[in-house]
Amino acid sequence: MQYSASDAARKAAMNATQAIAGDKAMALLNRAFSKAGLNVAATVLQLYYVARSPEVPVWAKTVIFGALGYFVLVPDAIPDVAPVLGFTDDLAVLASALTGAAGYVTPEMRQRIRERLRGWFGEKADEVILAPEPILALEDQSGDTGKSKT
């Protein structure tokens, strides 16, 4: 049986999704968040929940896994132990990945992310800004497409 590159990428994305779905991944993120702070935690959680969604295309999961891998595994361009600047490179990589994946963050994901952040950071979690809903989704819900009816 012959597989195409897209089949191999899809299988790799599914394997990676299963790998990050467990308690071990969340324990690793808990340790990282205790040092990184609220904004990094919010960004990573959004990426984490998007990556676990079966509706997300392979290209988006590949970008997300690369960014999450940089955050947790790779020696950084700026070491995380450096005061103030330590997580700036991580946040830049994560924010870039979230820019491409933000359209896949659902209202249900936002709710779960807020709850998780409140558990870690208390009421301060309500201050963080999560990825907004895509404009097209907002238009679809309201029934208004912005086109005149003339």
Tell me what the structure shows.
Helix content is 65%, strand content 0%. It is mostly helical and 150 residues long. It has one domain (5-142). Helix 3 packs antiparallel against helix 4. Mean pLDDT is 74; it is low at 1-6.
List the helices and strands and how they pair.
Blueprint (H helix, E strand, L loop, with lengths): L4 H16 L2 H14 L1 H15 L5 H15 L15 H14 L5 H15 L13 H8 L8
Helix pairs in contact: 1-4, 2-3, 3-4, 3-5, 3-6, 4-5
In helices, the fraction of residues equals 55-70%
Estimated structural class:
mainly alpha
Strand content: under 5%
Average of the residue pLDDT scores: 74
Could you describe the largest sheet, including whether it forms a barrel? none
